[in-house]
Amino acid sequence: MRSDAGQSCRAFGHDLRFQKTHVELLLGLLRGDDAEDAEEVLADTLGYLAQSYEAGASMAQDIKVMRQVARVEEAIIGRTEENLGVNELAKLAGCSPFHLCRIFRACTGQSLRQFRLQQRLGTAVGRLGEGEKNLAALACDMGSNSHSHMTDAFRVALGMTPSEVRDELRRSDLHVLKYRLRDAWRNPQ
Description:
Keywords: DNA-binding, Transcription, Transcription regulation. It holds the Pfam family HTH_18. By secondary structure, the protein is mainly α. Helices cover 74% and strands 0% of the residues. It is globular and about 50 Å long. Residues 1-12 and 55-60 have low confidence and may be disordered.
């Protein structure tokens, strides 16, 4: 086990599709879908993550840099609805805004803006999985300027609108998810 447990999490390169899969898996378990399908989905997902980790494991990071990035990630995740500026985040990390942008992208593969948007959309996917009905309120809660702005972000990230995501999550089935994931991981886009 590494002394910086957060380091291994960042090496997996989570994306919004992965977060949506996570929500689908949880919903399937809560509905009482077939336990064997759940085990297979989980095993396939862990196998995929292990391959992703092995591909990115060679990127050795300075522990100070990793801590700086972790502080910024925690601030963004903990205050998803706020638009924390790069200057405020740089103060938190104890470095210049330019240096923060550079190290953040090097460690996460994303800009600060991309990371913030992914966290907001991930939170929105979770709420959609819980059955959120008011998409305009959800957009406002997630820091979007409008419902259409959030819809555009969903289309870019997932190829679906928020209402389509909510409907798919409502209908999701672990058996179908298992085969959809296997096909997607064998044939990445």
